[in-house]
Amino acid sequence: MAGLNTIARAWVAALMLSACTFASAASTEGPQGSTLVSQVAAQLAQARGVRAQFVQTQSLQAMQKPLVSNGTLLFMRDQGAVWRIEQPTRMTYVITDSGVTALDANDKPMRGARNAAGVAQVSRMMRAMLAGDLSALYSQFNVNAQGNVGRWHLKLTPAQPQLAQALRGLDLSGDTYVRSIRIQSASGDETHIEFMESTRVEVPNAGERTLLGAP
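The line above is the sequence of Outer membrane lipoprotein carrier protein LolA; the predicted structure tokens follow.
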């Protein structure tokens, strides 16, 4: 799934830089913005798990038409995430701290798809963000927070020149849940993910627990 690779490159770029020590920290648009970011993080962290449908649209400079895919996402804060792509090709990506496992339409592992470079870091970043912990992002981005806790928008722009070489910016919006993520790369490519029908999940089903390696 090309979209997952795009997200991975974005997160890996941020994480490679976050492994280094920077003296400067990200800033917000005044005390009100800082308070809103804290409120959003606390609100997102209330859910142990989330199940949602998604539509992902990739606009690539090298292609005339956008690439669109859709499916479902299960995110469990302590275990990982299961992305099931229904269209245009049925595939499943299981993302944990151990890496990424790609499965075919019959949930059989695909050769050469496990433990790609940086996927453990990608998993931690995605899970931290969806769990309401924005600290990994917050340490590397300038943050412009708008709205209120019931309807918020966060615009993240790279605070470090090295990060700006890979990313132009990230936009997140939502309410009780993350509803939209937009990733703009420095090359001009853009990935937009919309999450719909989000619901809380306390315990994944038996099949999902098996995929995530949970007892």
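Note on the example: Residues 2-212 form a domain with the outer membrane lipoprotein receptor (LolB), chain A fold (CATH 2.50.20.10). The chain has one domain: 2-212.
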